[in-house]
Structure formats: C-alpha cells, structure tokens
Amino acid sequence: MPPSRMPFCAGIVLSGLDEGSSISIVVLSYEDEKYIKTFSMKMGPGLDTTFQDLIALFPENPLYATLSLPSFLSNEEKKMVVSSARSAGLQISPRDYQRDNIHTVLARLVERGPYDPRNDLLVEIGPSALGARLVCTTVEEGILDFVEEEKDIFTQEAHTSPTEVISLLVDPLLSNLREHPTSAGRDIKGIIIIEPSPTALIDLLADHLKTKFANQPIEIIKSPPNSLARYAAEISLKQHRSKINARQYGCIFNVAALRVGIAKSDGFVVSIIPRNHTLPAIAKTAHFTTSEDDQTTATVKIVFGASPKAQDNLTIAQLQLKGLPPRPKGVPRIKVTVDVEHMGKTRIVVEDVTEQDAATNSVSTELEDINAAVDSITDEYTGETEPKYLEAETSGIDGFTEAENRWVGQGVQGDLPP
C-alpha cells in the first residue's frame, strides 16, 4: 500500500446515467509512476449516493479528478453529474477537469505529434445510446485545435449489430463529408471506437470497419473502458503536476482559452494570440493602417473568441489612438503590441510609428487577467463557454477571404476604424 500522504489523481468514465450503467475508474500517483489502481462499479439509483460510494473506494480523499462523460448527455445532465461529484468531495475544476468521452480520446491523439488538418471519425458505444462525431483537427506544438465545426449524430437507442452502427452513424457522416469537404479534404485518416462500458460490440464493429475500408488506408483504433479511464487520469495528473510545478518555481503558466484578436474596419478579426497558446507569451505585435483619408483617430478593439467576425467575439478592451496627423488612408503605420506576463497580466500598447519603427504617439492599457473575461462567460459546472463565442463558421460569410488577403503594404495586416 502506498504512503498515506501520497497525492492521487483519478480518471472517472461514465457510460450513462441509467441505474446499472458502468463506471470505470483509474487512479494514478503523482509521486510513484508505477502506481496504478483500476476498478469499476455500477451507477446506483441516484448520482449523489453513487459518488459517495465511489469516493469511498479511493485510497485517499480528496482527489484531483477528471470526469469523462457520455458525449450524448445534455448540458443540464452534465451539470448534475459534476455537482454531485463535487458535493461528494472530488476536486473537479470547472474548466480543466471535465470533458466528454469523445474529447478525452481526441486529447490522446496529440501524442502522435504535429500533423496538418486531418479528418477523424469517433464512434461512441454506450449501453443505452450511440453517437458518432466527425472532426477535422490539427496539432501544432503539442496543441490540438479544431479546424472545422464538428458534425455529429447521436441516437438514444442501443444497437448491438455492427451493420446498424455503420448504417446509422458512420455512413451518414461520411456521406456528409463527401458533400461538404473540410480543409483536410473528403478522406478520413482514422476511425476511433470508444467503449465506456465493456460490450462485445467493439471487436465486432472493428472487424466490420476493417472489411468495409479494406482498400483504403484508414486506421481503426479501439479505445476500451480501462484505456479511456487511464487517459482521463493522465489528464488529471498532468493538470495537478502543472500546479505543483507552478508553486515550486514561483510562476504560473495559464492558457489563452480563446483566441485574442484585433477587430479591423471591415468587421473581421486578425489573430494576435492563438487559442490554447501557453501564457505567459512573448509580446505579440501586429501592424495596421487607417481605413479613411485624413483619419486622425484609430480605434483598436481587442476581442476574445473563435469567429472571424468581430461582432461574434467578446470585447475585452478598446483603445483609441488620437492626434494622428491627416494623411491618405493606408499611409499611417499603427503598431499594436499585446504583452502577456505570468498570471495573465496583460499590457496593450498602440503606437503611431515611422518607417524606422520609432513611436511618435501612443496609448496603452493593462488588464489584470487575460482569461478573466472567459470566466464571466463560462458555465459554473461544465466549463462550457457560450456557443456564440466559440463559433468559427466561415462558410457563407461574404468577403471573408478578401478581408484576410487585403493587406495594405508589407507587414500591415489590415486597417482600423476611426
């Protein structure tokens, strides 16, 4: 038995909320890399009693824990699960430690290393429901990013036939991909089968899929219950280790939960700090110009979000540079610098500069925490952000490509409104 003071991290995977649904748990130790405890239990008549019984099985309380929940649950159901887990004594962080089963597996794909946009199909097999999600993702510098909006199908009926799963979930999403290709094209690279509870279907489905795609280079991956719980536990351990290291070295590295950008005069956004970028970041700089002749002011609006349209993002700061000398549009050079220090403290500087980058006029402001704005729009329990700030749909947006390509002068990334 490990020492009583050893810190533990757990991954808890639910297959459903019905009584009798299986729950898989894996416990890892921060201090002992070889320590692993794996066990399972059944969902009881209520969430509160279930988590009370579950926490009694752990070697020490409290624990840092990552909950991985069925992807087909509603937000209200996810809230109930997280609330019951926290009431039982589990340390569940709203933004870092809760995710659905499909995203738990997606996080594991980062270990494959950097890759360009690729299409993957994830199929989740639950005891009372099935789901599939088509995602286009990319990995750069260890950060998984969703390139396209996810497309999914969920059904609340359980099916035991692999042919039913393929006809209900796989074929419709592949047909959709052929009609509406992503930036990665019409082909998929892999099909990942997620099984939160032990059934015989995962092996049968894998065999059927291998036969169906025998002539195509598609990787079929099985993710059984224990491995899914292990993934969740490793996520929890990684988060806990980051906090321990932060305290040990006297600094804390946050993550920009959403993209930080600057609104241009055409209504679109130039990204200055990418989404999921580790903070503190080195100072990021972008150059702009004016949108009108004889413009004597320039408005710089700093926004949080994912949409290319400024109006669909959250404005976190706005500065107005005044006293510009009247010049033709496109001639002024306005330098915007966003400098994020540790703990998220952010300094924003807007300068009117010469060709030699010497500042002739400037205005600046400071934000205490670049992520504070996200907290105000983040759900108390699930950590889910209001959808309008996460939308990144670009289809049907007139002028999007033109706006991104319309640069004025070398190194200038757009123009600013008065």
UniProtKB/TrEMBL annotation:
<keyword id="KW-0547">Nucleotide-binding</keyword>
<dbReference type="Pfam" id="PF00012">
    <property type="entry name" value="HSP70"/>
</dbReference>
<keyword id="KW-0067">ATP-binding</keyword>
<dbReference type="InterPro" id="IPR029047">
    <property type="entry name" value="HSP70_peptide-bd_sf"/>
</dbReference>
<dbReference type="GO" id="GO:0140662">
    <property type="term" value="F:ATP-dependent protein folding chaperone"/>
</dbReference>
<dbReference type="InterPro" id="IPR013126">
    <property type="entry name" value="Hsp_70_fam"/>
</dbReference>
<dbReference type="GO" id="GO:0005524">
    <property type="term" value="F:ATP binding"/>
</dbReference>
<protein>
    <recommendedName>
        <fullName>Heat shock protein 70</fullName>
    </recommendedName>
</protein>
